[in-house]
Amino acid sequence: xxxxLEMKGITKRFPGVVALKDVNLAVQPGExxxxxxxxxxxxxxxxxxxxxxxxxxxxxxxxxxxxxxxRFESIRDSEDRGIAIIHQELALVPLMSIAExxxxxxxxxxxxxxxxxxxxxxxVELLKQVGLDASPEELITNLGVGKQQLVEIAxxxxxxxxxxxxDEPTASLNENDxxxxxxxxxxxxxxxxxxxxxxxxxxxxxxVADSVTVLRDGSTVRSMDCVDVPINEDEIIRHMVGREMxxxxxxxxxxxxxxxxxxxxxxxxxxxxxxxxxxxGVNFHVRAGEILGIAGLMGAGRTELAMSIFGRTxxxxxxxxVLLRGQEVDVSTVEKAxxxxxxxxxxxxxxxxxxxxxxxxxxxxxANLPGVSKRGVIDDGREYSVAKDFQRKMNIRCPDVFQYVGxxxxxxxxxxxxxxxxxxxxxxxxxDEPTRGIDVGAKYEIYCLMAExxxxxxxxxxxxxxxxxxxxxxxxxxxxxxxxFVAEMAxxxxxxxxxxxxxxxxxxx
Amino acid sequence: MNSVMQAVEPATGxxxxxxxxxKNLREYGMLLSLVVIMVFFEYMTDGTLMQxxxxxxxxxxNSYIVIMALGMLLxxxxxxxxxxxxxxxxxxxxxxxxxxxxxxWHYLPATLACLAVGALIGxxxxxxxxxxxxxxxxxxxxxxxxxxxxxxxxxxxxxxxxFPKGFQLLSSGFIPDPFGTDGLRVTSLLLGAAVALGxxxxxxxxxxxxxRYGAAAEPLGFLVGKNLAFAAAxxxxxxxxxxxxxxxxxxxxxxxxxxxxxxVTNRTTIGRRVYALGGNExxxxxxxxxxxRLSFYTFVxxxxxxALAGLIFAARLNTATPKAGVGFELDxxxxxxxxxxxxxxGVGKVMGAVIxxxxxxxxxxxxxxxxxxxxxxxxxxGVVLVAAVFVDVYNKNK
Lengths: 509, 398
Known about the structure:
The structure holds two protein chains of two kinds. Chain A is α/β, with parallel strands linked by helices. Chain A is built from 17 helices and 24 strands. In chain A, the strands form six sheets. In chain A, strands 6-9-10-3-11-12 form a six-stranded mixed β-sheet, with helices on both faces. Chain A has a six-stranded mixed β-sheet with strand order 18-21-22-15-23-24, sandwiched between helices. In chain A, strands 2-1-4-5 form a four-stranded antiparallel β-sheet, covered by helices on one side. The longest helix of chain B has 27 residues. The chains are: A alpha/beta, B mainly alpha.
């Protein structure tokens, strides 16, 4: 069979760096081709070359699509040939309707006047095709992330694409939505569409992909066919990181002490809908040196629980008690929570964790400015050496701590957020999706850090949507569903099936 | 992609002079353009620009813009804007006239009362902006109308003056000269020399500190050159002023405030928190910073500085008029943006705003001397504002 897409010897240089070195990619018609690699391996660059973001002439090499050589000058050109790309960050206009978004820039119109009827009709068809049960007039802002992703796909379908590129399509989706999306992709495949999927999640690749290409440091490391031979996840990881990774999680011997942190009857009402109880009387405790996992689907209220405890940064009419070593403490503002040794590392590091246009060292000291200042005056030297220390300890890859955090990769940004909170000297560390969107190598470093902190006797609360991560790192798990804890289990007795069962069973009641 | 793309450079010790200049071009670029503009007008006006009398006027004319720009910079860095400063300055000038001329208050309590009212005005506007999240643009647009109206009402639409002698000295006074020599005012010159020495000392100390804790410091040659140039410029300007009437009182106030706000923004926790607030309010709040209160205080501070500017302006004209301060807000905001502040908050430097204010001031003054009409002056100023920000943004994105 002839490949529908061939990229041969693609080399892309940026001032001072070679982002892609002689990359080859061949995609067969009607297959799902997965591309994986660490952050910085060049996956996104490769897709930008393919989709015309980097026009012909700015790279070396050849692109052949449907047997013909292509010289795309812009995204428009590649779209005209039937290549559509869905970016990791959704590009929808929140206050416009589904129909308006789907045909944005591609409006069904005659001489500039939009044909509302045709738009509506076509949108209904497209929504049916992607299995989204919503009115075309619905505003994007009223949809969850999962549904927004489906709208993006509908938008790509509206352009009558032959090759659909999905960049980390399930990165922000919960388990159910991810599964539904993967099923949809398989359905498209059955209808003969060709897809390229960039993903970090090896279990998803194993489920849907027909072949896998691994990139590392801008080069093609390996292409594998996996129709006949089942995918070996460890082998892919080995190619991605370029080293044997015997274990994805560091080995630890938990030394668990007395209960340090306890939350009783925690009840929170929804921030916008004041009569809606969002967190329903949650009780939990963490012991010294323990890693406590909180599992649950997206929207279960885990982030809201953590943020409401951390200085009431979420919700209203909050009631309940927080105890530290048996003593009730006041955590009604972030400042007070921090003073009592509680730290919350947000799931949204760009939105809530970092000041992107500030230097690394300024970000690290932000939660503990008194620690680097005297009577309100900052000691630059102290601040610098604190930041330098963390750069070394956390292995933050950057030329110097004067650099803006906005220029760092996701994994390094996450390390800066963690440094900030470690510098605040917490006793209880709440980590909300600490490894989301970062590469395998950096993940491992963060796991090691968690293990180290637990060994020092700190309490760690790990909120994660990735069940293997919870099972690999936590000592004990709570399962949360619809604002309540529905199960507690020691990790030794837990499994993915057990967690899912707890959620499903709770949903039925 | 990012991790591959980071070119690693040596992190410790000194960097090369050319590399350093390139990296800091943005910071010094503005200063350089000010110098270029000054040289240009000095040449075009056949030396009138730098004549001691004109230089003194230049300082007096711009002092209130500079003082308001200090407060505006904090407001803009915090992610807000204040359109009401011109009206507030006018209103406070009127209030001062009513208190001193109609009610015969002594100038000291009257000045303090005016500053307090300025704080109150800033507080009221800040209250709605910070605690009720009404956009600053709207609140201060309202304030602009309200305080212009109140100024008209307070002065019954007429000019009120003259002010008591003591109050006039705020603007028209010069620092005393106990040496009493004719011609050259030695105190002013000595003060200038002291400032220059202090500047050199601070720079040397900062560099020594940086080397002590191992951060990349300025190359020595560059430092020496920079300091010599700065010290020479300061002493020369002071010499020019000293050969007329000496340093104006306003200049001392302005300079002290400049140093104070530069210190606050660069070295204190409050300054750091304002930058974090403007850069990412949510992240700042989750780091334990009381963002609402901080926004509120930036407006209180702005109110006080607008009041001070209003007093200086009134003292300079020796009357309070209902039209005083019209359009000041535009000059002040323009100064901040020319000086490199970002309209989205989180970015901007005090010294940049000061330089921006002088860029506008020198252009106003130079074009007036050249006899360019007010029509074209406005066109040119508008073009310069957009061009300056364009160059800034273009360089940043490159």
